[in-house]
Amino acid sequence: MIRRVLIVFLFLPLLAPAQSVPQGDVWHHFKYFLGTWKGTGKGQPGVSILERDYQLVLNNKFIRVKHKSSYQPQARNPKGETHEDWGYFSYDRSRKVHVLRQFHVEGFVTQYYSTSVDAKTLVFVSENLENLPAGFKARETYKILNENEFMEVFELAPPGKEFSVYSENHFKRQP
Q: Is 36 exposed, middle or buried (0-12, 13-18, 19+ CB in 10 A)?
């Protein structure tokens, strides 16, 4: 019993003050995302059609994310392109943060940690970028708009520079 109470107190800083969270439910703010989503994106790579799926896996210890962006042909990329990435959310009990690891078809691997998690916004900042020049940083922000829509803003920062928006994606829940 004491251990459960301690766990709840350890999670309190990550939760919105008005939230009522079941004891030990590290996925409370993430369950919103479970299921299939479609949407549109825009940004430096162009305009895209999006598909995404979030699923609890491995005895509910992780959330797996499968993502696909199909970029329409454009002047700088006349054939268009397809980007895919898979990710896994986990909870690091020792650091008391959520971690997101993404594996991209281009060979990039990004590990993020949560800097803010509440009922409307989740923010993740990179702590390791594999196969990019040293000093690059990335940030993913998820903004819940309503029960069936969310926005995702992906930002990059080259060495010594501030974050700038690389892409913005708008998702709608699928039945």
A: middle
17 pLDDT more than 70: no
Considering only CA atoms, which of 129, 120, 119 is closest in space to residue 155? 129
In tens, the pLDDT along 70-82 reads 998 888 778 889 9
Structural domain spans, the chain? 25-173
Distance CA 113, CA 121 (A): 14
Q: Cα-flanking dihedrals φ and ψ of residue 52, to 5°? A: -150, 145
DSSP letter assigned to residue 77: B
Question: Per-residue confidence at 60, pLDDT binned at 50, 70, 90?
Answer: very high
Residue type, 103: F
- CATH class, domain 25-173, is mainly beta
Please state the φ and ψ torsions of residue 95, each to the nearest 5 degrees. Answer: -95, -15
pTM score: 0.82
Q: What is the pLDDT of residue 23?
A: 55
Nearest to 50 by CA among 59, 66, 37, 39: 39
**Sequential DSSP letters for 36-51:** EEEEEEEETT--EEEE
Mean pLDDT of the chain: 87
Q: What is the number of residues in the chain?
A: 175
